[in-house]
Design goal:
Elements lengths: L6 H12 L5 H8 L3 H11 L2 H11 L34
């Protein structure tokens, strides 16, 4: 990663990565962290078993990759969306 991330940013990236309908492109646009960097971050911050379970779940998932999505905008919104400060995407 090119820029150091604060603890709250790491927590939010992990939360967004766990959400099935949040694409990696949204993480990239908000935090400047690529899909490969998210994977490295998840590997570093999670227990090995949790990381393996997450990787199996998101690998090839259409909702996590914008190019594979069959829709432009998803209907799902995180319950945490309102309470997050510094969330650039929700303030557009």
């Amino acid at each position: 990663m090119n820029i150091p991330l604060e603890a709250w940013q790491i927590d939010r990236i992990i939360e967004m990565a766990w959400e099935d309908r949040t694409p990696f492109d949204a993480i990239k646009s908000q935090f400047g962290v690529s899909e490969a960097e998210v994977i490295k971050l998840m590997r570093k911050e999670m227990k090995p078993s949790s990381f393996k379970m997450w990787r199996e779940r998101v690998q090839g998932r259409a909702t996590k990759h914008a190019k594979l999505r069959g829709f432009a905008v998803g209907a799902h919104k995180s319950r945490m969306q309102r309470t997050i400060t510094g969330n650039k995407i929700s303030k557009r």
